[in-house]
């Protein structure tokens, strides 16, 4: 009897510890979700903004004429960061709608989008192809090129912003299993179990339920 009482008393705190652990996990999941959404959204927005700014400048060297200064925006140098930022935004939304293995795949896509955008921005920082093409068009000389190439800070700002998308993807890979799904509420409300539970509990709008309420002395029109 003494042993039985000891085991029963010792087992009382265990559910409480479990509930505390679940609450801590839920809180951590919400924080990581908010952080990932913030990082992904800010990163994608900055990438899209920076891609429209001037990335490179240089002087034209041509047999027709030299000395003109040309510049190229990020979108002219490479369209990869912009495209990958848009993919990252879509993945950021999709990761909330997906579940299980699908969520992990979308989180991986989000991570790769950030990594790809950062790599493309760094590679494009020293790319003179866009300016050479513009020099050939402006001078009418196919051999024209751009010399004394200089870079503005925008390619590196783009790369840094893309790393925020990458960080959001890593958070999704690490903590995504604890995040809620956008479709969860709908499924709980409209799933077979929910419909069965509503039928069991009774629909207050059905005539028989109204009569039962009147028999109990209740006002069925009172919604309070």
SSE blueprint:
Blueprint: H1 2-10, H2 13-50, E1 54-61, E2 69-73, H3 74-77, H4 80-97, H5 100-124, H6 129-139, E3 145-151, H7 154-175, H8 184-190, H9 192-201, H10 207-215
Antiparallel strand pairs: 1-2, 1-3
Order of helices and strands: HHEEHHHHEHHHH
Rg, Å, rounded: 30 Å
Strand content: 5-15%
User: Could you say which overall geometry the principal axes of the C-alpha atoms support?
Assistant: elongated
Q: How far apart lie the N and C ends? A: 52 Å
Strand order of the largest sheet: 2-1-3
Uncertain stretches: 5-12, 184-189
What is the average per-residue confidence, as pLDDT, rounded to a whole number?
Answer: 79
Oligomer: single chain
How many DSSP-defined strands? Answer: 3
Q: Major beta sheet, specifics?
A: 3 strands, antiparallel
The DSSP helix count reads 10
Alpha-beta content class: mainly alpha
Q: Give the fraction of residues assigned to helices.
A: 55-70%
What does this 3D model show about the protein?
It is a single chain. With 224 residues, the chain is mostly helical. It is 68% helix and 9% strand. It contains ten helices and three strands, in the order ααββααααβαααα. A three-stranded antiparallel sheet has the order 2-1-3. Strand 1 (54-61) and strand 2 (69-73) form a beta hairpin. Helix 4 packs antiparallel against helix 5 and helix 5 packs antiparallel against helix 7. The longest helix has 38 residues, at 13-50. It is elongated, with a radius of gyration of 30 Å. Residues 5-12 and 184-189 have low confidence and may be disordered.
